[in-house]
């Protein structure tokens, strides 16, 4: 790859649902017809694009449409979650070719987890029949905070013993694929831009409901990572100044992250007597199961369950309003491992709760929706990060070549 104009053209083709002719490309990206012609030839030779039929029935020569070649490149995405690990193989247009999930080894031993990931990747490649040489790399979406420079996971809640694990190096060594690491929320936001169809240059916030709460920020079509890759740690927004101490030791009280922790919500339901007592030393999966049961009760109209969830939704609305006031987005998207069970309830009550609290309520309404990518959004996002790094035009590429 390595050519800025080439990535600009590829990006333009990727952004158009129906594909583009060479003439349309020249107009869109402002390069000469000769340059467009040369670069299209190279992209066709590299099998990254294909000629997909001709368009135009009137007078004049019909135009050949250029489209991405789904089989031109692939990427592997791994979502590292304390309860469940998801591995996907994505093609160049962001479609899932193969997918596997497995329960995170209960030991939480990094070596054991990395070994299991590597075996799963080999299995996916073998079953899909995809040539290894066409795999651009492997992306890991991990719970934050992360050390982006070293590709290390730095003590996420619920991954016991993960104090400072250089996951990037470990996975790269085990799989032999060039590996990158990003926060799960960043991956989810990139997935929403990439695989969710042409999104244009809009701004949105991706609320990621995992073991912790975080957001991925997309401002004017670009994902915003912050100075160290850790932007979006909204779990520390205070929703109840007299609440319990924040579980991550920051010293603040009544933070949204703690209030919305599945463990905290589930305990409320246990104390209220509507859920059975959890086993001793509950795992992330125990919480996930209990949380799903509680969500079912909301659907069944259980009043205590509804009251608990309504309180959680109100806390969420306060935090969402703080974020919305700060970045003034068009949309708020929700997803993550704990999203599916609460989706319907949240989408019923939250849009009004949030919009009533936003400072811009008299100017525009912010749309709330669930992710279009379902429960695999973290893994898909991790693979999209690889494709983005390989393909997207970036300023540093221009500088290197200039
Ligand atoms: Zn905190």
The count of strands amounts to 15
Q: Extract low-pLDDT stretches.
A: none
What does the average pLDDT come to? Answer: 88
The CATH class assignment of the largest domain is Alpha Beta
Rounded to an integer in angstroms, the radius of gyration calculated over CA atoms is: 23 Å
Strand content: 15-25%
Main-sheet strand order equals: 6-5-4-7-10
Secondary structural class: alpha/beta
Name the ligand types. zinc ion
What's the tally of helices? 13
Q: What name does CATH use for the topology of the largest domain?
A: Nucleotidyltransferase, domain 5
Rough outline: globular
Helical fraction = 40-55%
Q: Strand count, sense and closure of the main sheet?
A: 5 strands, mixed
**What string gives the helices and strands in order?**
HEHHEEEEEHEEEHEHEEEHHHHEHEHH
Provide tags for this entry.
5-stranded mixed β-sheet, binds zinc ion, alpha/beta, Arc Repressor Mutant, subunit A, 402 residues, Nucleotidyltransferase, domain 5, 3 domains, 13 helices
């Amino acid at each position: 790859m390595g050519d800025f104009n080439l990535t600009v053209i590829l990006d333009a083709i990727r952004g158009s649902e129906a594909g583009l002719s060479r003439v349309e490309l020249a107009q869109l990206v402002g390069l000469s017809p000769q340059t467009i012609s040369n670069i299209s030839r190279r992209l066709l030779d590299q099998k990254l694009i294909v000629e997909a039929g001709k368009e135009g029935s009137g007078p004049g020569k019909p135009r050949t449409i250029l489209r991405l070649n789904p089989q031109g490149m692939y990427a592997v995405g791994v979502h590292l979650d304390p309860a469940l690990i998801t591995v996907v193989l994505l093609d160049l247009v962001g479609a899932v070719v193969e997918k596997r999930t497995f329960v995170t080894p209960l030991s939480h031993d990094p070596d054991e987890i990395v070994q299991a990931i590597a075996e799963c990747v080999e299995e996916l490649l073998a079953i899909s029949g995809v040539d290894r040489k066409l795999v651009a790399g492997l992306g890991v979406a991990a719970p934050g905070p992360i050390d982006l420079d070293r590709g290390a996971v730095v003590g996420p809640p619920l991954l016991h013993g993960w104090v400072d694990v250089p996951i990037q190096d470990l996975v790269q060594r085990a799989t032999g694929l060039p590996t990158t690491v990003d926060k799960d929320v960043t991956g989810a936001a990139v997935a929403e831009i990439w695989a969710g169809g042409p999104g244009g240059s809009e701004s949105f916030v991706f609320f990621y409901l995992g073991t912790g709460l975080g957001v991925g920020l997309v401002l004017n079509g670009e994902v915003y990572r912050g100075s160290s890759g850790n932007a979006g740690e909204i779990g520390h927004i205070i929703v109840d100044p007299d609440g319990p101490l924040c579980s991550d030791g920051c010293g603040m009280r009544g933070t949204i992250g703690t209030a919305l922790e599945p463990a905290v919500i589930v305990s409320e339901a246990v104390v209220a007597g509507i859920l059975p007592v959890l086993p001793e030393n509950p795992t992330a999966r125990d919480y996930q199961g209990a949380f799903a049961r509680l969500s079912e009760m909301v659907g069944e109209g259980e009043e205590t369950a509804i009251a608990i969830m309504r309180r959680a939704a109100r806390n969420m609305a306060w935090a969402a309003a703080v974020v919305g006031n700060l970045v003034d987005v068009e949309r708020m998207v929700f997803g993550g491992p704990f999203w599916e069970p609460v989706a319907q309830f949240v989408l019923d009550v939250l849009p009004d709760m949030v919009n009533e609290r936003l400072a811009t309520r008299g100017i525009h309404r912010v749309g709330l929706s669930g992710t279009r990518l379902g429960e695999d959004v973290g893994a898909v996002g991790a693979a999209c990060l690889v494709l983005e790094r390989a393909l997207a035009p970036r300023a540093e590429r221009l500088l290197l070549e200039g």
